[in-house]
Design goal:
Number of helices: 17
Organism: Streptomyces monticola
Pfam families: Peptidase_C14 (PF00656)
Strand order of the largest sheet: 2-1-3-7-8-10
Region (Disordered): 270-302
Number of strands: 27
Domain Peptidase C14 caspase: 10-251
Structural class: alpha+beta
Protein name: Caspase domain-containing protein
Length: 678
């Protein structure tokens, strides 16, 4: 095991800028949220264990001088590792110099109100001269400029010198000298994007895209890796996820291969406090108590892992597309139930008597598909030894893998085999031998779609499930298992008919309390309640709704929180219409799309409910945006407008884009998919 940097001799400065005064720089609350979350992870002993007094978190209310002063103070105190992180807007000037935008930054004149990266680099290098490792992480547009690289190739000595502000012969050795590296010291710069690319905050995401992936890797760890993981491995994991998603490709710029020698603890491997120093310590005993030797998993005679869901199946995992899956069922079954008779005979002949089964369901998120989530069925087989497991795994490489049972139905703590035409739908299967275990996973979309365009999503889900399940999840106690929110239950098919839909017709079940649009603006629900359908719009609209079986409408009002630059906040009026079945909803979606401007506008909170606004002239002349969307048997409308009823005279080109993103985000945040069953 490679030692992690000494927490007592290391320092970290994390900068997250979320508020900006220039109208061209949108608010970015995800940036300070990411900085705060990273600080918490760095303090966690299961990752690094930095003392709280060794971490400085800087928010929007700061200046260039204050940032540089904080970095200087941290650098002077660092003898092992210095980490500097920045998230916010990035700017560049005509000379292709990078500027880190602070709250008062001027887009037209980056030299005003922004922190020149060159100054930050110089303070890190000169004040941190005693630190063995100096790491800079930049999550902002054009951040790749900091590395001086134009591609993904390894940096040359000239490029190293440019990024670090040192002479080209720094370190006293040329790049091609064999064995010239000295990993006792070194600098590295990790960036979220190439020099000419933007960085993004996904719609509704808590953190910027690059930071979010970094947080996920640190939080969940890397299954199958060692007890510590190098910065190189962590960065590659993040880069590969973003690359497959088509996002800007992160850049790495390292001196003396520092990213390969700088390690943090791997949360996917059990962690416990190091034993106190003793005269005659017994390392083997300590390791067995806190972190079982992976070699013990090779034989049933040495493997102490309980054959149980909580020991072998993670409660959640996130695939390389940033989609989270939660375990909604898990239990033990006889191997007789694991597949076709030929497969069962092979399993029994190799000593398999029981199979652990699990069901994972795609959870709501910025990259998820809430209407038709992906389901992953997992089976874990335990064999007497690793040789037998490898033999069975080779058998499953043929057609036998398609004759394994698909598990899907939740029932108590267990699950039941699925019924449905899975052979006629698109699905992906992955399996692997891991020590004495064979793990198999099959992914399908819950609507059993036969659509080749969903193959990348199915493939990614099954692969990540196989890699995440196994004995590495067993931690031996509950100290490392924090409580998690209950997963969203699979209710997709039930939403198609009123006779099977169990979603309560209440505000809490159908309307989110808060949501954030793609511009990072948060909206809060001010009011929400069911109303009679005769108040949903004009007489002709009401007549049509009632004739199609709609007797009630769920109404909600959302108000923009902390509108940018003192502008009047935007308001979103939402209506959710339930119909007897999906076919009726499809027809009404088309009708309401044409009649949308004759729908009621809800705005005035009164207790737990609210009242419709009379359709006066001022409402029809103001800037507004209305979207109609169907979710199974529901039709949802969202109307966004500014509370000052600003006229649509084209004087402010930012008004309509703000309203569009607000209405779209409201539609994503409302509907039966948000109901969690509690």
């Amino acid at each position: 095991m490679v030692a992690i940097p000494d927490p007592g001799k290391s320092r970290a400065v994390l900068i997250g800028i979320g508020d900006y005064t220039h109208p061209a720089l949108s608010a970015m609350p995800a940036a300070p949220a990411g900085a705060q979350h990273l600080a918490g992870l760095l303090r966690d002993p299961s990752i690094w264990g930095l003392p709280e007094e060794h971490i400085t978190v800087i928010g929007s209310t700061t200046s260039v001088e204050q940032v540089l002063g904080a970095v200087r103070d941290a650098a002077l105190g660092a003898q092992d590792t210095l980490l500097v992180y920045f998230a916010g807007h990035g700017l560049r000037d005509r000379d292709e110099q990078l500027y880190l935008a602070l709250a008062a930054a001027d887009v037209d004149y980056p030299q005003v109100g922004a922190l020149p990266y060159g100054q930050l680099r110089d303070v890190v290098r000169r004040s941190g001269y005693r630190a063995r490792h100096r790491v800079t992480v930049l999550d902002c547009c054009y951040s790749g400029i900091a590395g001086g690289m134009s591609g993904t190739a390894a940096p040359t000595r000239t490029e190293l010198a440019r990024a670090l502000g040192e002479s080209e012969d720094a370190g006293g050795a040329s790049d091609d000298q064999e064995g010239a590296e000295d990993h006792r010291y070194g600098d590295c710069v990790l960036t979220s994007a190439p020099p000419t690319s933007l960085s993004f905050v996904p719609q509704g995401a808590r953190f910027p895209e690059f930071t979010g992936e970094l947080i996920d890797v640190l939080e969940t760890g890397i299954p199958g890796a060692d007890v510590t993981v190098s910065l190189e491995t962590t960065w590659r994991r993040v880069r590969d996820r973003l690359r497959r998603r088509g996002s800007p490709e992160p850049q790495q710029f390292a001196q003396n291969a520092v990213t390969r020698h700088l390690h943090l603890r791997n949360r996917a491997v059990p962690f416990g406090p190091e034993p106190e120093a003793k005269a005659e310590p017994d390392p083997s005993t300590q390791q067995a108590a806190e972190a079982p030797d992976p070699y013990s998993w090779n034989s049933s005679g040495t493997d102490q892992t309980p054959f149980a869901a909580d020991a072998l199946l993670p409660r959640r995992f996130t695939n390389d597309r940033g989609i989270e899956f939660a375990r909604v069922a898990g239990g033990l079954h006889s191997c007789v139930d694991a597949g076709g008779m030929d497969v069962v005979a092979e399993l029994a002949g190799r000593g398999c008597l029981r199979v652990l089964t699990g069901v994972y369901l795609e959870q709501p998120g910025p990259y998820a598909t809430p209407e038709n989530p992906v389901l992953v069925s997992v089976q874990v087989f335990a064999f007497p030894d690793a040789v037998t497991a490898n033999d069975m795994n080779n058998l499953l490489s043929g057609d036998a893998r398609w004759r394994l049972t698909v598990w899907c139905t939740q029932s108590g703590v267990g699950n039941n085999p699925c019924s449905g035409d899975f052979d006629g739908s698109r699905s992906f299967e992955h399996h692997r031998a891991f020590h004495r275990y064979v793990i198999a996973a099959r992914s399908v979309r819950t609507d059993l779609a036969d659509d080749t365009t969903i193959d990348p999503w199915l493939n990614s889900a099954a692969h990540e499930a196989v890699m995440s399940c196994g004995p590495q999840n067993h931690r031996g106690d509950a100290r490392r298992t924090p409580p998690l929110p209950e997963p969203v239950a699979w209710r997709g098919p039930s939403w198609d008919s009123s006779s099977s839909d169990l979603t309560p017709f209440t505000a809490e079940a159908l309307l989110s309390r808060r949501f954030t649009d793609s511009k990072g603006i948060e909206f809060a629900r001010l009011a929400g309640a069911p109303q009679p359908c005769d108040q949903a719009g004009a007489v002709d609209v009401v007549t049509k709704l009632i004739g199609r079986g709609c007797l009630r409408v769920m109404t909600g009002v959302f108000l923009e929180q902390l509108a940018p630059h003192g502008a009047p906040p935007a308001l979103v009026s939402v209506q959710i219409f339930p119909f007897p079945d999906t076919a009726t909803a499809v027809d009404m979606e088309s009708y309401l799309g044409e009649a949308r401007w004759r729908l009621a506008i809800w705005h005035a909170p009164t207790g737990d409910g609210h009242t419709p606004r009379a359709a006066g002239v001022e409402w029809h002349q103001c800037s507004r945006w209305l979207i109609v969307r169907r979710r199974h048997r529901y039709v949802i409308t969202a109307l966004a407008l500014r509370t000052d009823l600003a006229l649509d005279d084209g004087s402010d080109p930012q008004v309509v884009p703000r309203l569009i993103t607000a209405a779209e985000a409201a539609l994503d945040a409302c509907g039966p998919h948000i109901y969690r069953g509690d």
